């Protein structure tokens, strides 16, 4: 094996410790690179003696240590101090790195705007806001754990507990954080709303700060770099960059270097435009976890597209993708509305997704010689149990509501085709459920009313027992009364659009 020159070692050390801000961080970054690229155990020679290195770690005083075993002599240890020192980073692209304190600022890709925001989010104002955010969060947690909310919070914690009734600290913190900021109480308010209403002594800036926390950013983030106390993160879901701080101190980011990944929630720091705070728990993952992180991010983007559409650019891209996907679906399935037994519906959807992936893979550029086109392994599509047990499944791909599935849709369609069935309890209960159930959008009722204009009035008169009911006059008001959430929220495309970096990690072209 050859030896490294001093210059080559300096380059390697610089790569391992990039974006670290002190010697402790440098040692942690150095160890992270060693763990990623060095397989243990291995044999080597220490002071002329052959040993087996079984573990690499850090001592309490931040020295990198190799734990060695010499056959027949038990375990010994060889320690060395990480041979690197943090150097002040040179500002890149003319931007001034002046950000300080624990918050999160969304970073624009425009460098001149970035310079302005860096200057704006510095100094006493930011430091004060961060200290105040820590005080208010502590008070909010105490308020939310009070007797007024004990029953509701206790139920959520019990629901999140493992089968053996154990609840780890990280899960509990996550449940409490969501309960404080997002859980809707019977009056529609959150615990944060109640806290602000109760605390008449709060300054207006404090009130705005707490209320801004009700809309957190959730995601899987890649560490792109460090700047003093801040961490620059790329959200793999919304494809936006965030300048991240922690209001509990810089030690939160110890050991994190460029290329690591985080699962975290961020909340706005309202007094500082564009600034954010870490909220709840944060989990970190090494560079080597990139494939698993990418698959998890793809799963989140698919199951929770609202996390993607925080980026306005993704919304228009999503609508365009959905129009294309809907046209391909209608061509593949001979229509945008199907009624099938559950097993057939699952088989058709899996065949369609394979067809789409094959078409997308074929459109990729021809790879270099010796390399093959790659595509992520598609998960098998399965209907949830409440749909899998139905007699039939309605599959509707709407131009606005996207792709949706409806239990026993065939039975409901039969009712509108033959109003005489309105005298049967099974059909009455089914239509009432479709109208009253909040989780069902107005789409299936609208579709059937449009398809059967000659029978829709008679069906509703019999089932609702309202002889004067007409769909044209009363239908929209009925749906708005039973499904207000649908009309209160702006529609978003049902197709997620992943960004360039996530596509790169998945080994695909951006979709």
What does this structure look like?
The protein is an alpha+beta fold. Helix content is 43%, strand content 17%. It has 19 helices and 13 strands. The chain has helices spanning 6-16, 23-37, 111-120, 124-144, 150-160, 169-181, 191-198, 204-212, 290-303, 312-333, 342-362, 385-388, 409-417, 425-436, 443-451, 456-464, 471-482, 484-488, 500-506, and strands at 42-46, 49-58, 64-69, 75-80, 104-107, 217-227, 230-235, 241-244, 261-268, 275-285, 337-340, 393-398, 402-407. The protein has a six-stranded antiparallel β-barrel with strand order 5-8-7-6-9-10. The protein has a four-stranded antiparallel β-sheet with strand order 1-2-3-4. Helix 9 packs across helix 19. The two termini are 44 Å apart. Mean pLDDT is 80; it is low at 71-120.
The pLDDT mean sits at 80
Structural class: alpha+beta
Which residues form runs of ≥5 with pLDDT under 50?
71-120
How many beta-strand runs? 13
Strand order of the main beta sheet, please? 5-8-7-6-9-10
Largest sheet: 6 strands, antiparallel, barrel
The value of Rg in angstroms is 29 Å
Measured between the Cα atoms of the first and last residue, the distance is 44 Å
What's the overall geometry?
globular
Task: Name the beta content range.
Answer: 15-25%
Q: Can you count the helices?
A: 19
Helix content: 40-55%
What's this, in brief?
This protein is α+β, with helices and mostly antiparallel strands. It has 19 helices and 13 strands.
Question: What features would you highlight for this structure?
Answer:
511 residues, alpha+beta, six-stranded antiparallel barrel, four-stranded antiparallel sheet, 19 helices, globular
